[in-house]
Amino acid sequence: KNEVEQSPQNLTAQEGEFITINCSYSVGISALHWLQQHPGGGIVSLFMLSSGKKKHGRLIATINIQEKHSSLHITASHPRDSAVYICAVNQGGSEKLVFGKGTKLTVNP
Amino acid sequence: NAGVTQTPKFRVLKTGQSMTLLCAQDMNHEYMYWYRQDPGMGLRLIHYSVGEGTTAKGEVPDGYNVSRLKKQNFLLGLESAAPSQTSVYFCASSYLLRVSYNEQFFGPGTRLTVL
Asked: Alpha-carbon distance A12 to A9, whole Å?
């Protein structure tokens, strides 16, 4: 069993819809990361959080440490949000990341 | 600032050939990482470095070697390439905020095919 599980694997939405991507992990962590990988391949960090909630523009990330669960929400989705979204965690005191397999999001106009 | 750059962007090798992938960062980051990304799998750590002159093994180190002679550069070597090393390779770097709480900045990737 992968230590970091994401759901769904694939998600198709219509422009304007509210989107939620989930991440569950089975180990103690010090931080959780949400990353975005565009079709061109580049990977960028969206959020790094260890508690509560963070918001950048239309993106919101939440984490529940007790339930070992995080969600990434996209409000008013747009075709340019189409990408693979990757969840990763720092286990315990490690500087290394463990990655989920990613969620492929397609937003249709 | 260029951020994290990788050279080359694409490469085709024959089985048994060797090559070196270069990663460079201009952000004065302490930590640097090499990952591989394969279809249907998450990013997997090959080797990493916590500072100039140091290297450590990650999850999938076999068949690869690394060196970090300068703080800004992290080299990944394949001594004798195998088809199983066909993959997209990403380099990343991070600053030392706290050991286990550090945002990583990724390079654009190198697509390697081994025939």
From this structure: 10
